[in-house]
Amino acid sequence: MSAQFSRAIVRTPGQSYAQGLTSSEQLGTPDLPRTLEQHAQYCRALRECGLELTTLPADERFPDGTFVEDTAVIAERVAVVTRPGAASRAGEVNAIAAALSVLRPRIERLEAPATLDGGDICQAGEHFFIGISARTNAEGARQLAAILKAHGYTASTIDIRTHRTLLHLKTGMAWLGERRCVVVPGFPRPPELASYEFIEVAAAESYAANCVLVNDQVLVAAGFPAMSTRLRSLGFALRTLEVSEFRKMDGGLSCLSLRL
Ligand code: GLY
Strand 127-132's sheet: what is its strand order? Predict the structure, then answer.
């Protein structure tokens, strides 16, 4: 089983992008022209993987709005608008819900007190791993799992709160089809992952764990040669992308699109 998509929703970074949330100030302030260029390259790569894009305009009220993945969880049989865990990001969902409503006949929603960021959700075929994090609470996980179950999927949780460097589940984990996952060193190994083959990134290349399987290609961050060599040796076709300006704001390749 692999990940097949025909469309992605993306949102252009705005002038306020550098005012977003980050714990990576040591990497410096993002350069806006470079950010826009990297976003354009990312969009080009998605198109070259066969996806049609729905591109939402920037909304200056939401500096983190380009990280659209956090605003919804989209699977073949169900689409769920989330309740992002950071207060400054709560309003991002409105534009996403409007865009989704023309693509999907029915959209589910989470209710308070649930909080959940899409970056905490890793779909592996018919199963969903839900990260419990500083952004996604137990109630968010419970509500999402119930919705997924109603549509025939299974779900289980992974608590990442003890792994200090992980903002989201997918900061440290990516599904690469069948029973293969990329993980960072020290990633939790709950029983639901027991039958998986792990591709563990080197500690110095942890950022590269946030890669994305799109149809028959894997989007990977540029600048992490050991990871790229390893994936190529396993037979994956890679598309390497510069994402330095997104890393500065704690974002990565998966965060920049909602794939459906
Ligand atoms: N800057 C992305 C986030 O913290 O949600």
Answer: 121-124, 127-132, 154-159
